[in-house]
Structure formats: structure tokens, C-alpha cells
């Protein structure tokens, strides 16, 4: 037996999960380098060794959920790389205008074929709303309708979509509510699809950083973009919203949230999926809006992200036969691990999904929640 195996079984694995066991959620180790890699590098080593094919698990999401429940990073000393990642985030702004393009290049510009195969017809890359829906298309359309109702849209309004993705919200809002939408993204691949989807509609798609925005709008929305802003820029972002929002306007922020104040994300996620990304906490958002914007409503439906991510995972696996000609086997394992880990984090209650309604102090109407 590898000398590290007993240590991992005793200190790291959740109760009831075994190395090379017979249950679907047990992990199967194929390379003994796995043990040392996990002990030395924690969650980063776990993810990288999975990408390398050193271990596998039939119910990967189940295993990762159990692992998150026991806080693996508290069981293993953080690697020097992880400590340096935290130190950098504290010393420097890791989400400057120049650095922010990294996430577009390394994630959102991977290839539209990947996201078209995985996402719904509106290509919404954010949590769906499963209150009544039975399919991903229905759940994402219900989410879009919920957002439009919370924004209280009416014909002729001007709407700013910060982080418009592939144009799903802009298309839906312009078609259903006859509003004029300006969408911004830093991804050229997203902008290409967004312009195609919104052709013939009163929609402008721009490749632009949010910090360069000017003008004023009746409504502002940001869906799944705030996770890339970074804690050093939260107040800057909210100041921009205040500047761009008309006095009687409404802003809806749809974002993933964390239970604790952090300045970085998981080291594996930072390296392979969302460089420079991080999830805000309630306290961090509160400080950013203090004396700038007024909180009108805060809605949490994070449990729906588990369902959304598992649907994306199923679609990705089903499409792999067509996708594998453009992506490597290591990429396949990376993407399966990413979607499984993300689903597990919401299932374990480590992450939340918030829809937050904010207005300027000059907003004089009564805002009534839909819930």
C-alpha cells in the first residue's frame, strides 16, 4: 500500500467513502502519484490528478459534494501556490481592465460549439429557475421572464445589460417587452453570436469593459458577470451602476455568492476555469452599495444551480462525440470535473445564487417583490 494512502483515508475522505471501494461514489485510484499530489496541493492537486486520469469516480458529483461537506482545505495544509494566490489578491488588483480579458480568452472564447451544445436555446450561462419548469429551455426562459418582471420593463425603455454573454437576455427582452438594449461583453466569441441572435432587434452589442460605460438607462441588469469583478472593484462597479442608472431606474444583479468573505476562489478553478474570478459575500456586497444604492429585494435560489449544472453536464457528455474533434481528452476530464465540482458546491450549500434589486436613493416608488 502507498505510504500516503492511509493518511488520505483517515484525514481526508468523508465517512463511508473509500479508496478503490465498490460503491459508485468511491474513488478508483489508477496512479499512486495521486496520493502525494493531493496531500501536497489540496484541491488543486485533486483536480489536476483527475485531469491526468490518475483517479476516477462514477458518481463524481456525489463524491465532491461529500468532500466539500468536510472542508478538504481545512484537512490539508494549503500549498505555497494557493497561499501566493491569496497574497497576490490582497496586494494587487487582479481584475484590472487589462487583466480582465484573461477570462474571456481562457474561458468564454473556448469555442461557441462547446457552449451551443451545452446550453439552452437562449444560451444562458447562468442559473436557471426551476420552480415550475421541467426542461432546461423552460427553466431558462422562466428565469428571463422573472428578471424582466422584477425590472418592471415596459415598451420603449432603455436597458443596459452588463456582461450580456451570447445575447439571450437582450434578445428575450427586446422581443417580448419591446425595450432597447445595449449589451456589453469582453468576449469576441460571445459578441459574434449575440449580434446574430439580436439581428433586426433594437439591440446594440459592444465589446467593452464595464468601467468605460457612459450614458444613462431606465434599467440595468447584470447576469452572471459580477463574479469576475473582484473584491477590489465592487465599489467601483456599484458607482458605475449609480452613474448609469436614471433616478427612477431599477438595477437587477444576478450572481453567485459565497458564505464567507474571500479574496480568491478555489485554486483549481482559478487556474483552469475562471482566472481572477471570485464570489462576493453578503458583507462585501453590502459595503459596496453603502451610501450608493438602496436594497429593495434579495432573492436566493442557489439550489437551482445544482439542477442547472447537472443538466449542462449531461448535455456536454451527450455532445462529446461531436466535440472531441476540437478538444482533447484532458479537456473533457477538466470540463466534467468543473461542472461536477460546481454542482457539488451548490448542493453542499457552499455557494448561493442571488438576484438582488437595487435602486438609487432618488427612487421614490414602492418596489413590491414578486415573491
Summarize the structure in words.
This protein has 371 residues and is α/β, with parallel strands linked by helices. It folds into two domains: 5-77, no CATH class; 93-359, Rossmann fold (3-Layer(aba) Sandwich). The chain is 46% helix and 15% strand. The protein has helices at residues 5-11, 33-51, 60-69, 72-75, 80-91, 97-108, 112-118, 136-151, 168-177, 188-197, 234-244, 267-272, 282-289, 303-323, 329-347; strands at 28-29, 55-56, 158-162, 180-185, 203-207, 217-223, 245-258, 294-300, 351-359. Strands 5-4-3-6-7-9-8 form a seven-stranded mixed β-sheet. Strands 1-2 form a two-stranded antiparallel sheet. Strand 4, helix 10 (188-197) and strand 5 (203-207) form a beta-alpha-beta unit. The longest helix is centred in the C-terminal third of the chain and has 21 residues, at 303-323.
Give the amount of beta strand, in percent: 15-25%
**Cα-based radius of gyration, to the nearest Å:** 21 Å
CATH architecture of the largest domain: 3-Layer(aba) Sandwich
Shape: globular
Number of domains: 2
Strand count: 9
Read across the widest sheet, the strand sequence of neighbours is 5-4-3-6-7-9-8
Helix count, DSSP H or I runs of 4 or more residues:
15
Briefly summarize what is shown.
This protein has helices at 5-11, 33-51, 60-69, 72-75, 80-91, 97-108, 112-118, 136-151, 168-177, 188-197, 234-244, 267-272, 282-289, 303-323, 329-347; strands spanning 28-29, 55-56, 158-162, 180-185, 203-207, 217-223, 245-258, 294-300, 351-359. The protein is α/β, with parallel strands linked by helices. Strand 3, helix 9 (168-177) and strand 4 (180-185) form a beta-alpha-beta unit.
